[in-house]
Specification:
By secondary structure, this protein is of the alpha/beta class. It has one domain (5-335): TIM Barrel (Alpha-Beta Barrel). It has helices at 5-11, 27-36, 46-51, 58-69, 75-91, 103-107, 113-131, 147-157, 182-190, 205-213, 230-238, 247-252, 264-269, 281-284, 288-299, 303-316, 321-335; strands at residues 14-20, 94-101, 134-142, 166-170, 194-199, 219-222, 243-245, 274-276. Bound molecules: zinc ion (ZN). The site of zinc ion has 6 residues, from strand 1. Zinc ion binds at residues 18, 20, 170, 198, 221, 279. Keywords: Hydrolase, Metal-binding, Nucleotide metabolism, Zinc. The active site is at 201 (proton donor). Its EC number is 3.5.4.2.
């Protein structure tokens, strides 16, 4: 029996490297946590909340994203949110994941840093033990806040540094260039953390340039607007700086009008280490395989493209050489 490229995409093992755990909160879980914590929500029902997910741009999404996160108060809430994501990831044959979390969204509401990190970290350990999914956490700074706030967040998180492997930069991109965070990223590199940043989603290619030159990021999250600058594309390809691309997010936030216009095929053809990811799956219409399958179908990607995307996800991950070899072998077995 022959499999189509889309069926292959769904079946093979892959890594997810661009998932905001707060963006995996489904309306049902938001309501369940609100009830458990005795909170009332500004939406009368699960359906009304889901109906409110009609965004037109990054900011209109972020407004509702922060409202949803307000139900997270206790360690068990963070654990349950991450565990729900791991079950979905496992179902999509995700075998490794590097998860973003936004501590400032929680500490600003009075939730202790320890609660956030320990709740998420215990879910990561459980995923390894019970699902065989390896997982790591990446702490993201909210770029609409100040660099001083990012420094304070880093300080508060350092007692728990064994629980996260890197730092990133997310939230409202335009008007908040990567260079705003040069000093705190320099400090994070000194401390031995991996560094990544969102750039070139809504912001211009110059932001991608700043991320790799000023922040010295090892990956670019999104990066789709790199295609507007051929010299930048050539450099990203030459240096094998991966892009964690999120097709359904780009569609939902109107970065592209139609998935058939998505730049994924052009990124691959340019030799870039592009990967498929879900970004904020509860809000953007799908988890890993929904992103992968719909992209393959919309762009008529080949079997080789599919395998390249999965290989890229392992190449771009921050796993040990041993774990990377294991992951690549899993892929080779699945393809054979
Ligand atoms: Zn993102």
């Amino acid at each position: 029996m022959t499999t189509t490229p889309a069926q292959l995409a769904a079946a093979i093992p892959k890594a997810e490297l661009h998932i905001h755990i707060e963006g995996s909160l489904e309306p049902e879980l938001i309501f369940a946590l609100a009830q458990r914590n005795g909170l009332s929500l500004p939406y009368p029902s699960v359906e009304a909340l889901r109906d409110a997910y009609a965004f037109t741009n990054l900011q209109s999404f972020l407004d509702i994203y922060y409202a949803g996160a307000s139900v997270l108060l206790h360690e068990a809430d963070f654990h349950d949110m991450a565990w729900a994501y791991f079950l979905r990831a496992k179902a999509d044959n995700v075998v490794h994941t590097e998860i973003f979390f936004d501590p400032q969204t929680h500490t600003a509401r009075g939730v202790p840093m320890a609660t956030v990190i320990q709740g998420l970290s215990s879910a990561c350990e459980r995923a390894r033990a019970e699902l065989g999914v390896s997982a790591a956490l990446i702490l993201c700074f909210l770029r609409h806040l100040s660099e001083d706030d990012a420094f304070a967040t880093l300080e508060a998180a350092l007692p728990y540094r064994q629980h996260f492997i890197g730092v990133g930069l997310d939230s409202s991109e335009v008007g908040h260039p990567p260079s705003k965070f040069s000093r705190v990223f320099a400090r994070c590199r000194e401390l031995g953390f991996h560094v990544v940043a969102h750039a070139g989603e809504e912001g211009p290619p110059a932001y991608i340039r700043e991320a790799i030159d000023d922040l010295k990021t090892e990956r670019i999250d999104h990066g789709v607007r790199s295609l507007e600058d051929p010299a930048l594309v050539a450099e990203l390809a030459r240096r094998r700086i991966p892009l964690t691309v999120c097709p359904l997010s780009n569609l939902k936030l109107c970065v592209v009008d139609d998935l058939r216009q998505h730049p994924m095929k052009r990124l691959l053809d340019a030799g870039l280490c592009a990967t498929v990811n879900s970004d904020d799956p509860a809000y953007f219409g799908g988890y890993m395989n929904a992103n992968f399958v719909q992209t393959v179908e919309a762009l008529d990607l080949s079997r080789d493209d599919v395998i390249t995307l999965a290989r890229n996800s392992f190449e771009a991950s921050f796993v040990s050489a041993t774990r990377r070899a294991e992951l690549m072998a899993l892929l080779d077995d699945a393809v054979a």
